[in-house]
Amino acid sequence: MPKPMDQTDCRIIELLDADGRLSLADIGKEVDLTGPAVGERLRHLREQGYITGFGARLDLRALGYSIQALVRIKPRSGQLHAVEKMIQEQPRFMSCDRVTGDDCYVTRLAIADVSELDDILLPFHERAETHTSIVKSSIFEPRLPPLRPAR
């Protein structure tokens, strides 16, 4: 079981989430620690599984993907594993969640034009039903839930 996070750990994660390029020294100034002490805490947070990786936030429009679509996918009987493999192999799917309810998967696609939906989704129609919604705008991007330090 991971060691519970304290308030300083939570603040370090929040700072990194806001700006992943902050130096250890800059984070240290914010949390009253030295840069090496912050580095040690980050190492522990990774070892404990709280931090699983680091990445960049991209502007999909700048990359040529002006449209995002949410696609609910309901595999036909006996097709669950084949459909899951198809989703994994299609690079335009940016995320995929297994869900409860009528559909088995809720996915998010990046596309340059609505006409690309047919190219991506037609191969699924032999094995699944799909329901697509175009994202008009996002209220906010993915964000951290409230972090809870141990008491």
From TrEMBL:
Pfam families: AsnC_trans_reg, HTH_AsnC-type. Residues 5-66 form the HTH asnC-type domain. Keywords: DNA-binding, Transcription, Transcription regulation. One of its GO terms (cellular component) is cytosol. InterPro entries: ArsR-like_HTH (IPR011991), AsnC-type_HTH_dom (IPR000485), Dimeric_a/b-barrel (IPR011008), Tscrpt_reg_AsnC-like (IPR019888), Tscrpt_reg_AsnC/Lrp_C (IPR019887), WH-like_DNA-bd_sf (IPR036388), WH_DNA-bd_sf (IPR036390). This is AsnC family transcriptional regulator. GO terms for biological process: regulation of DNA-templated transcription; response to amino acid. GO terms for molecular function: sequence-specific DNA binding. It comes from the Bacteria.
